[in-house]
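look at this fold:
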Amino acid sequence: QVQLVESGGGLVQAGGSLRLSCAASGIGFSIWDMGWYRQVLGKQRELVATISAGGITNYADSAKGRFTISRDNAKNTVYLQMNSLKPEDTAVYYCNGEFRSLRYWGQGTQVTVSS
């Protein structure tokens, strides 16, 4: 059974930092491409950052310079370090895992940034 479990969300003031974690089970984590997406109620889910199985990273323009995605294959975990948070970063953040035609999502973790 595949599970992606996010943690680390919460309430933070603008300018603050949070680190999200996504623990994966039931997949060969090291060969999967992983990513973080976010969604605001009433809007489409959008890409935040991805990291390939080989460690290549990709960021949305809104995340560049502030967010860092990383992975620890020994712990089957992908992280999203978020610095200099802004109120517009408020959203539910979802972990995503992809391998060929397979795609899985976590349940999401709420991030709220107060001004």
Remarks:
- The mean pLDDT is 97.
- The first strand starts at residue 3 and ends at 7.
